[in-house]
Design brief:
This protein is an alpha/beta fold. Helices cover 33% and strands 26% of the residues. It has 13 helices and 18 strands. The strands form 3 sheets. The protein has an 8-stranded mixed beta sheet, with helices on both faces. The structure holds adenosine-5'-diphosphate, aspartic acid and magnesium ion. The site of magnesium ion has 3 residues, from loops.
Length: 416
Protein backbone atom coordinates (compact mmCIF):
# COMPACT_ATOMS: atom_id res chain seq x y z
CA UNK A 1 0.00 0.00 0.00
CA UNK A 2 1.18 3.49 -0.80
CA UNK A 3 -0.06 7.01 -0.19
CA UNK A 4 -0.35 8.89 -3.47
CA UNK A 5 -1.09 12.32 -4.84
CA UNK A 6 -2.52 12.24 -8.36
CA UNK A 7 -2.69 15.63 -10.12
CA UNK A 8 -4.73 16.15 -13.29
CA UNK A 9 -4.26 19.24 -15.48
CA UNK A 10 -6.84 21.21 -17.46
CA UNK A 11 -6.93 19.12 -20.63
CA UNK A 12 -7.35 15.98 -18.51
CA UNK A 13 -10.59 17.34 -16.98
CA UNK A 14 -11.82 19.33 -20.00
CA UNK A 15 -15.28 17.69 -20.05
CA UNK A 16 -17.34 14.97 -18.36
CA UNK A 17 -15.89 12.15 -20.49
CA UNK A 18 -12.26 12.99 -19.65
CA UNK A 19 -13.33 13.38 -16.00
CA UNK A 20 -14.72 9.83 -16.15
CA UNK A 21 -11.38 8.67 -17.51
CA UNK A 22 -9.65 10.45 -14.63
CA UNK A 23 -12.02 8.75 -12.19
CA UNK A 24 -11.08 5.35 -13.64
CA UNK A 25 -7.38 6.20 -13.13
CA UNK A 26 -8.19 7.02 -9.51
CA UNK A 27 -10.18 3.78 -9.15
CA UNK A 28 -7.20 1.83 -10.50
CA UNK A 29 -5.03 3.16 -7.66
CA UNK A 30 -7.76 2.72 -5.02
CA UNK A 31 -8.35 -0.88 -6.15
CA UNK A 32 -4.61 -1.50 -5.81
CA UNK A 33 -5.01 -0.66 -2.12
CA UNK A 34 -3.53 2.84 -2.15
CA UNK A 35 -4.62 5.95 -0.22
CA UNK A 36 -5.31 8.63 -2.78
CA UNK A 37 -5.43 12.43 -2.68
CA UNK A 38 -6.30 13.93 -6.06
CA UNK A 39 -5.48 17.51 -7.08
CA UNK A 40 -7.38 18.97 -10.04
CA UNK A 41 -7.01 22.00 -12.30
CA UNK A 42 -9.88 23.91 -13.87
CA UNK A 43 -11.32 22.59 -17.13
CA UNK A 44 -9.10 23.53 -20.09
CA UNK A 45 -9.61 27.16 -21.09
CA UNK A 46 -11.74 28.06 -18.07
CA UNK A 47 -9.03 29.95 -16.16
CA UNK A 48 -8.25 31.99 -19.30
CA UNK A 49 -11.92 32.89 -19.67
CA UNK A 50 -12.14 33.94 -16.02
CA UNK A 51 -8.98 36.07 -16.32
CA UNK A 52 -10.47 37.75 -19.41
CA UNK A 53 -13.69 38.49 -17.50
CA UNK A 54 -11.70 40.27 -14.79
CA UNK A 55 -9.78 42.35 -17.33
CA UNK A 56 -12.98 43.24 -19.16
CA UNK A 57 -14.67 44.27 -15.90
CA UNK A 58 -11.85 46.69 -15.04
CA UNK A 59 -8.28 46.71 -16.39
CA UNK A 60 -6.95 47.73 -12.96
CA UNK A 61 -8.90 45.14 -11.00
CA UNK A 62 -8.50 44.40 -7.28
CA UNK A 63 -6.23 41.31 -7.16
CA UNK A 64 -8.18 39.90 -4.18
CA UNK A 65 -11.33 39.85 -6.29
CA UNK A 66 -9.40 38.44 -9.27
CA UNK A 67 -8.48 35.52 -6.98
CA UNK A 68 -12.10 35.10 -5.89
CA UNK A 69 -13.05 34.79 -9.57
CA UNK A 70 -10.26 32.62 -10.98
CA UNK A 71 -10.21 30.15 -8.07
CA UNK A 72 -13.75 29.10 -9.03
CA UNK A 73 -12.58 26.97 -11.97
CA UNK A 74 -10.95 24.43 -9.67
CA UNK A 75 -13.97 24.41 -7.34
CA UNK A 76 -16.11 23.12 -10.22
CA UNK A 77 -13.77 20.29 -11.24
CA UNK A 78 -13.15 19.10 -7.68
CA UNK A 79 -16.90 18.74 -7.16
CA UNK A 80 -17.48 17.09 -10.52
CA UNK A 81 -14.75 14.51 -9.96
CA UNK A 82 -16.08 13.73 -6.46
CA UNK A 83 -19.58 13.20 -7.94
CA UNK A 84 -18.16 10.96 -10.67
CA UNK A 85 -16.16 8.87 -8.19
CA UNK A 86 -19.19 8.48 -5.91
CA UNK A 87 -21.25 7.32 -8.89
CA UNK A 88 -18.61 4.61 -9.43
CA UNK A 89 -19.04 3.46 -5.84
CA UNK A 90 -15.87 5.10 -4.52
CA UNK A 91 -16.05 7.14 -1.31
CA UNK A 92 -14.85 10.64 -2.17
CA UNK A 93 -15.28 14.28 -1.19
CA UNK A 94 -14.07 17.61 -2.54
CA UNK A 95 -11.84 20.01 -0.61
CA UNK A 96 -11.35 23.68 -1.39
CA UNK A 97 -8.06 25.35 -0.50
CA UNK A 98 -9.65 27.20 2.45
CA UNK A 99 -11.15 24.02 3.86
CA UNK A 100 -7.86 22.21 4.50
CA UNK A 101 -6.62 24.99 4.80
CA UNK A 102 -3.76 25.71 2.40
CA UNK A 103 -2.36 28.88 3.99
CA UNK A 104 -0.66 31.35 1.68
CA UNK A 105 1.11 34.68 1.56
CA UNK A 106 -0.85 37.78 0.53
CA UNK A 107 0.67 38.08 -2.96
CA UNK A 108 -2.72 37.74 -4.64
CA UNK A 109 -2.44 36.19 -8.10
CA UNK A 110 1.00 34.75 -7.31
CA UNK A 111 0.74 33.67 -3.67
CA UNK A 112 3.20 31.28 -2.02
CA UNK A 113 2.09 28.38 0.12
CA UNK A 114 3.20 28.93 3.72
CA UNK A 115 1.68 25.89 5.42
CA UNK A 116 -0.84 23.12 4.88
CA UNK A 117 -2.86 21.60 7.67
CA UNK A 118 -3.08 17.98 6.55
CA UNK A 119 -4.32 16.35 9.77
CA UNK A 120 -7.95 15.93 8.78
CA UNK A 121 -6.92 15.00 5.26
CA UNK A 122 -4.68 12.19 6.52
CA UNK A 123 -7.53 10.91 8.73
CA UNK A 124 -9.94 10.83 5.77
CA UNK A 125 -7.40 9.05 3.58
CA UNK A 126 -6.90 6.44 6.29
CA UNK A 127 -10.69 5.98 6.31
CA UNK A 128 -10.44 5.16 2.62
CA UNK A 129 -12.10 8.31 1.38
CA UNK A 130 -10.55 9.80 -1.74
CA UNK A 131 -9.81 13.50 -1.25
CA UNK A 132 -10.40 15.59 -4.37
CA UNK A 133 -8.59 18.86 -3.77
CA UNK A 134 -9.04 22.03 -5.80
CA UNK A 135 -5.55 22.99 -7.01
CA UNK A 136 -4.18 26.51 -7.57
CA UNK A 137 -5.86 27.99 -4.49
CA UNK A 138 -5.38 28.67 -0.83
CA UNK A 139 -6.33 31.24 1.76
CA UNK A 140 -4.28 34.14 3.06
CA UNK A 141 -3.20 33.46 6.61
CA UNK A 142 -4.32 36.76 8.17
CA UNK A 143 -7.08 38.20 6.01
CA UNK A 144 -8.69 34.78 5.26
CA UNK A 145 -9.19 35.84 1.66
CA UNK A 146 -8.89 33.37 -1.20
CA UNK A 147 -5.50 33.52 -2.91
CA UNK A 148 -4.26 31.80 -6.07
CA UNK A 149 -0.77 30.51 -6.76
CA UNK A 150 -0.01 31.90 -10.22
CA UNK A 151 -0.71 30.28 -13.59
CA UNK A 152 0.06 26.58 -13.62
CA UNK A 153 -0.19 26.60 -9.81
CA UNK A 154 -2.00 23.27 -9.44
CA UNK A 155 1.38 21.57 -9.89
CA UNK A 156 2.54 23.43 -6.80
CA UNK A 157 -0.61 22.50 -4.88
CA UNK A 158 0.03 18.84 -5.71
CA UNK A 159 3.68 18.79 -4.66
CA UNK A 160 2.97 20.80 -1.49
CA UNK A 161 0.17 18.41 -0.50
CA UNK A 162 2.41 15.42 -1.27
CA UNK A 163 5.00 16.86 1.11
CA UNK A 164 2.38 17.64 3.77
CA UNK A 165 0.87 14.14 3.79
CA UNK A 166 4.28 12.51 3.30
CA UNK A 167 3.09 10.81 0.11
CA UNK A 168 5.18 8.06 -1.41
CA UNK A 169 4.72 9.60 -4.86
CA UNK A 170 3.28 12.65 -6.58
CA UNK A 171 2.02 11.66 -10.02
CA UNK A 172 1.46 14.54 -12.43
CA UNK A 173 -0.97 13.40 -15.13
CA UNK A 174 -0.95 15.68 -18.16
CA UNK A 175 -1.46 15.77 -21.94
CA UNK A 176 2.07 14.52 -22.68
CA UNK A 177 3.56 11.28 -21.38
CA UNK A 178 6.51 12.86 -19.60
CA UNK A 179 9.12 15.57 -19.71
CA UNK A 180 10.78 15.79 -23.10
CA UNK A 181 14.15 17.12 -24.24
CA UNK A 182 12.19 20.12 -25.50
CA UNK A 183 8.52 20.97 -26.12
CA UNK A 184 7.30 17.99 -28.19
CA UNK A 185 4.64 20.19 -29.82
CA UNK A 186 7.37 22.31 -31.39
CA UNK A 187 10.02 19.66 -32.07
CA UNK A 188 8.48 16.35 -33.13
CA UNK A 189 11.91 14.73 -32.73
CA UNK A 190 11.96 15.56 -29.00
CA UNK A 191 12.70 12.54 -26.84
CA UNK A 192 11.06 11.61 -23.55
CA UNK A 193 13.46 11.60 -20.61
CA UNK A 194 13.24 8.67 -18.16
CA UNK A 195 14.66 10.86 -15.41
CA UNK A 196 15.55 14.51 -14.98
CA UNK A 197 17.35 16.11 -12.04
CA UNK A 198 15.45 18.67 -9.92
CA UNK A 199 17.98 21.37 -10.78
CA UNK A 200 17.60 20.75 -14.51
CA UNK A 201 13.81 20.71 -14.31
CA UNK A 202 13.95 23.94 -12.31
CA UNK A 203 15.96 25.60 -15.09
CA UNK A 204 13.76 24.11 -17.84
CA UNK A 205 10.60 25.38 -16.10
CA UNK A 206 11.93 28.85 -15.30
CA UNK A 207 13.29 29.24 -18.84
CA UNK A 208 10.00 28.49 -20.57
CA UNK A 209 9.04 24.78 -20.42
CA UNK A 210 5.59 25.13 -18.92
CA UNK A 211 5.09 21.42 -18.29
CA UNK A 212 5.66 22.06 -14.54
CA UNK A 213 5.28 25.28 -12.55
CA UNK A 214 8.68 26.47 -11.26
CA UNK A 215 7.60 26.68 -7.63
CA UNK A 216 6.45 23.04 -7.64
CA UNK A 217 9.98 21.93 -8.49
CA UNK A 218 11.49 24.13 -5.77
CA UNK A 219 9.17 22.51 -3.25
CA UNK A 220 9.85 19.02 -4.61
CA UNK A 221 13.57 19.64 -4.23
CA UNK A 222 13.32 20.93 -0.65
CA UNK A 223 11.02 18.14 0.55
CA UNK A 224 12.46 15.46 -1.74
CA UNK A 225 9.09 14.54 -3.24
CA UNK A 226 9.25 11.90 -5.97
CA UNK A 227 7.47 13.61 -8.86
CA UNK A 228 6.46 11.42 -11.78
CA UNK A 229 5.09 13.06 -14.95
CA UNK A 230 2.85 10.79 -17.05
CA UNK A 231 -0.08 10.83 -19.46
CA UNK A 232 -3.72 11.04 -18.39
CA UNK A 233 -4.89 9.99 -21.84
CA UNK A 234 -3.89 6.34 -21.43
CA UNK A 235 -6.89 4.11 -20.91
CA UNK A 236 -6.69 2.93 -17.29
CA UNK A 237 -7.82 -0.56 -18.37
CA UNK A 238 -4.76 -0.90 -20.66
CA UNK A 239 -2.26 -0.23 -17.88
CA UNK A 240 -0.43 -3.31 -16.62
CA UNK A 241 0.04 -2.76 -12.86
CA UNK A 242 3.16 -4.95 -12.95
CA UNK A 243 5.00 -2.78 -15.50
CA UNK A 244 6.48 0.67 -14.92
CA UNK A 245 4.31 3.14 -16.88
CA UNK A 246 5.87 5.49 -19.44
CA UNK A 247 6.77 8.80 -17.85
CA UNK A 248 9.53 10.92 -16.36
CA UNK A 249 10.78 10.83 -12.80
CA UNK A 250 11.99 14.18 -11.46
CA UNK A 251 14.54 13.24 -8.86
CA UNK A 252 17.83 13.96 -7.18
CA UNK A 253 20.84 14.17 -9.49
CA UNK A 254 22.50 11.27 -7.65
CA UNK A 255 19.70 8.94 -8.79
CA UNK A 256 20.65 9.42 -12.44
CA UNK A 257 23.39 7.06 -13.54
CA UNK A 258 24.19 8.25 -17.04
CA UNK A 259 24.31 12.01 -17.22
CA UNK A 260 24.30 13.59 -20.66
CA UNK A 261 26.11 16.90 -21.12
CA UNK A 262 22.92 18.53 -22.40
CA UNK A 263 19.57 17.31 -21.05
CA UNK A 264 17.13 19.70 -22.63
CA UNK A 265 16.34 22.93 -24.43
CA UNK A 266 13.79 25.46 -23.25
CA UNK A 267 12.60 28.58 -24.98
CA UNK A 268 10.48 31.59 -24.29
CA UNK A 269 8.96 33.98 -26.79
CA UNK A 270 7.66 36.36 -24.15
CA UNK A 271 10.83 38.44 -24.03
CA UNK A 272 11.70 42.06 -24.77
CA UNK A 273 15.05 43.78 -25.09
CA UNK A 274 15.88 47.31 -24.01
CA UNK A 275 19.19 48.99 -24.87
CA UNK A 276 20.18 52.18 -23.07
CA UNK A 277 22.56 53.95 -25.45
CA UNK A 278 25.51 56.19 -24.62
CA UNK A 279 25.33 56.18 -20.86
CA UNK A 280 28.31 57.63 -19.02
CA UNK A 281 30.89 55.01 -18.09
CA UNK A 282 31.09 55.85 -14.39
CA UNK A 283 30.12 54.30 -11.04
CA UNK A 284 26.41 54.40 -10.18
CA UNK A 285 24.94 54.17 -13.67
CA UNK A 286 23.75 50.57 -13.34
CA UNK A 287 22.21 51.48 -9.98
CA UNK A 288 20.43 54.46 -11.59
CA UNK A 289 18.91 52.14 -14.20
CA UNK A 290 18.05 49.03 -12.17
CA UNK A 291 17.01 50.78 -8.95
CA UNK A 292 13.88 52.38 -10.45
CA UNK A 293 13.09 49.15 -12.32
CA UNK A 294 13.17 47.19 -9.08
CA UNK A 295 10.94 49.78 -7.43
CA UNK A 296 8.49 49.42 -10.33
CA UNK A 297 8.47 45.63 -9.70
CA UNK A 298 10.03 44.87 -13.09
CA UNK A 299 11.95 41.60 -13.17
CA UNK A 300 15.14 42.06 -15.16
CA UNK A 301 16.63 38.94 -16.71
CA UNK A 302 19.72 39.16 -18.97
CA UNK A 303 22.06 42.14 -18.55
CA UNK A 304 24.85 42.97 -20.97
CA UNK A 305 27.15 45.97 -20.58
CA UNK A 306 29.77 46.79 -23.18
CA UNK A 307 33.24 47.87 -22.18
CA UNK A 308 33.53 51.49 -23.21
CA UNK A 309 35.74 52.11 -26.26
CA UNK A 310 36.53 55.74 -25.47
CA UNK A 311 36.40 55.52 -21.66
CA UNK A 312 33.49 57.97 -21.57
CA UNK A 313 30.26 56.35 -22.73
CA UNK A 314 28.95 52.83 -23.10
CA UNK A 315 25.73 50.90 -23.91
CA UNK A 316 23.76 48.78 -21.49
CA UNK A 317 21.27 46.14 -22.67
CA UNK A 318 18.83 44.13 -20.60
CA UNK A 319 15.77 41.95 -21.10
CA UNK A 320 12.40 41.81 -19.36
CA UNK A 321 9.27 39.72 -19.97
CA UNK A 322 6.90 40.98 -22.65
CA UNK A 323 4.35 41.69 -19.91
CA UNK A 324 6.76 44.08 -18.15
CA UNK A 325 7.98 45.77 -21.34
CA UNK A 326 5.74 48.87 -21.29
CA UNK A 327 6.34 49.48 -17.58
CA UNK A 328 10.11 49.06 -18.02
CA UNK A 329 10.46 51.50 -20.93
CA UNK A 330 8.23 54.00 -19.15
CA UNK A 331 10.34 53.74 -15.98
CA UNK A 332 13.62 54.25 -17.85
CA UNK A 333 12.21 57.15 -19.84
CA UNK A 334 11.10 58.88 -16.63
CA UNK A 335 14.54 58.41 -15.10
CA UNK A 336 16.41 59.79 -18.13
CA UNK A 337 17.72 62.85 -16.28
CA UNK A 338 19.22 60.79 -13.45
CA UNK A 339 20.61 58.05 -15.69
CA UNK A 340 21.83 60.41 -18.42
CA UNK A 341 21.62 58.52 -21.71
CA UNK A 342 21.32 59.48 -25.39
CA UNK A 343 18.50 57.17 -26.53
CA UNK A 344 16.61 53.94 -25.91
CA UNK A 345 16.47 51.15 -28.49
CA UNK A 346 13.91 48.45 -27.91
CA UNK A 347 12.86 45.17 -29.52
CA UNK A 348 9.99 42.98 -28.44
CA UNK A 349 10.04 40.40 -31.19
CA UNK A 350 12.82 38.49 -29.47
CA UNK A 351 13.04 35.09 -27.82
CA UNK A 352 15.35 33.35 -25.43
CA UNK A 353 16.70 29.88 -26.13
CA UNK A 354 18.29 28.03 -23.21
CA UNK A 355 20.41 24.90 -23.21
CA UNK A 356 20.39 22.98 -19.93
CA UNK A 357 22.35 20.10 -18.42
CA UNK A 358 24.15 19.35 -15.15
CA UNK A 359 26.86 17.70 -17.27
CA UNK A 360 27.93 21.19 -18.38
CA UNK A 361 29.65 21.64 -15.05
CA UNK A 362 32.39 19.29 -16.15
CA UNK A 363 32.50 19.98 -19.89
CA UNK A 364 34.04 22.99 -21.62
CA UNK A 365 33.11 24.40 -25.01
CA UNK A 366 29.44 23.40 -24.94
CA UNK A 367 28.19 26.92 -25.69
CA UNK A 368 30.86 27.58 -28.33
CA UNK A 369 29.38 24.80 -30.45
CA UNK A 370 25.98 26.48 -30.32
CA UNK A 371 27.38 29.83 -31.49
CA UNK A 372 28.93 28.15 -34.55
CA UNK A 373 25.79 26.14 -35.39
CA UNK A 374 23.53 29.21 -35.19
CA UNK A 375 25.98 31.31 -37.22
CA UNK A 376 25.91 28.63 -39.93
CA UNK A 377 22.12 29.11 -40.12
CA UNK A 378 22.50 32.90 -40.30
CA UNK A 379 20.94 33.41 -36.85
CA UNK A 380 22.27 36.46 -35.03
CA UNK A 381 22.77 36.30 -31.25
CA UNK A 382 21.73 39.51 -29.48
CA UNK A 383 22.79 38.63 -25.94
CA UNK A 384 24.26 35.69 -24.03
CA UNK A 385 24.16 34.65 -20.39
CA UNK A 386 25.68 31.60 -18.79
CA UNK A 387 25.59 29.84 -15.45
CA UNK A 388 26.91 26.55 -14.14
CA UNK A 389 24.33 24.26 -15.74
CA UNK A 390 22.83 26.36 -18.54
CA UNK A 391 23.38 29.08 -21.08
CA UNK A 392 20.77 31.32 -22.72
CA UNK A 393 20.82 33.11 -26.05
CA UNK A 394 18.59 35.98 -27.12
CA UNK A 395 17.65 35.89 -30.81
CA UNK A 396 15.01 37.28 -33.19
CA UNK A 397 11.69 35.58 -32.44
CA UNK A 398 11.22 34.59 -36.09
CA UNK A 399 14.12 32.13 -35.74
CA UNK A 400 12.89 30.44 -32.54
CA UNK A 401 11.84 27.10 -34.00
CA UNK A 402 14.85 26.89 -36.33
CA UNK A 403 17.25 27.64 -33.47
CA UNK A 404 15.64 25.11 -31.10
CA UNK A 405 15.69 22.38 -33.77
CA UNK A 406 19.28 23.18 -34.73
CA UNK A 407 20.53 22.97 -31.14
CA UNK A 408 18.40 19.91 -30.42
CA UNK A 409 20.17 18.03 -33.25
CA UNK A 410 23.57 19.54 -32.42
CA UNK A 411 23.56 18.09 -28.91
CA UNK A 412 22.34 14.66 -30.01
CA UNK A 413 18.89 14.97 -28.45
CA UNK A 414 16.85 13.94 -31.52
CA UNK A 415 14.80 10.78 -31.24
CA UNK A 416 16.40 7.99 -33.28
P1 LIG B 1 -1.61 20.72 -17.65
O1 LIG B 1 -2.85 21.39 -18.12
O2 LIG B 1 -1.77 19.24 -17.53
O3 LIG B 1 -1.03 21.35 -16.41
P2 LIG B 1 0.30 22.14 -19.30
O4 LIG B 1 -0.30 22.63 -20.59
O5 LIG B 1 0.47 23.12 -18.19
O6 LIG B 1 -0.56 20.87 -18.83
O7 LIG B 1 1.72 21.46 -19.57
C1 LIG B 1 1.85 20.45 -20.55
C2 LIG B 1 2.41 21.05 -21.84
O8 LIG B 1 3.73 21.51 -21.61
C3 LIG B 1 2.56 20.06 -22.96
O9 LIG B 1 1.37 19.95 -23.72
C4 LIG B 1 3.72 20.62 -23.78
O10 LIG B 1 3.30 21.28 -24.95
C5 LIG B 1 4.35 21.66 -22.87
N1 LIG B 1 5.80 21.49 -22.73
C6 LIG B 1 6.72 22.48 -22.86
N2 LIG B 1 7.96 22.01 -22.72
C7 LIG B 1 7.85 20.67 -22.48
C8 LIG B 1 8.79 19.62 -22.26
N3 LIG B 1 10.11 19.87 -22.24
N4 LIG B 1 8.32 18.38 -22.06
C9 LIG B 1 7.00 18.13 -22.06
N5 LIG B 1 6.05 19.07 -22.30
C10 LIG B 1 6.47 20.33 -22.51
N1 LIG C 1 -6.13 26.53 -13.72
C1 LIG C 1 -4.89 27.23 -13.41
C2 LIG C 1 -4.25 27.75 -14.68
O1 LIG C 1 -4.77 27.53 -15.76
C3 LIG C 1 -3.93 26.39 -12.62
C4 LIG C 1 -3.42 25.15 -13.32
O2 LIG C 1 -3.98 24.69 -14.31
O3 LIG C 1 -2.42 24.61 -12.83
O4 LIG C 1 -3.26 28.42 -14.62
MG1 LIG D 1 0.14 23.10 -16.13
Amino acid sequence: MARLVMKFGGSSVADIDPIRNVARHVKREVDAGNEVAVVVSAMAGVTNTLVDFCRAAAPLYDPREYDAVVASGEQVTSGLLAITLQAMGIAARSWQGWQLPVETSDAHGAARILAINAEELIRCLADREVAVIAGFQGIHRETRRIATLGRGGSDTSAVAIAAAIRADRCDIYTDVDGVYTTDPRVVPKARRLDKIAFEEMLEMASLGAKVMQVRSIELGMVHNVHIFVRSSFDRPEDIDPHLAPPGTLICDESEIMEQEVVTGIAFSKDEAQISVRSVEDKPGVAAAIFGPLAEANVNVDMIVQNVSADGRTTDLTFTVTAADFARATDTIAKAQAEIGYARLDTANEVSKISVIGVGMRSHAGVAARAFRALADRGINIRAITTSEIKFSLLIDAAFTELAVRTLHSLYGLDKV
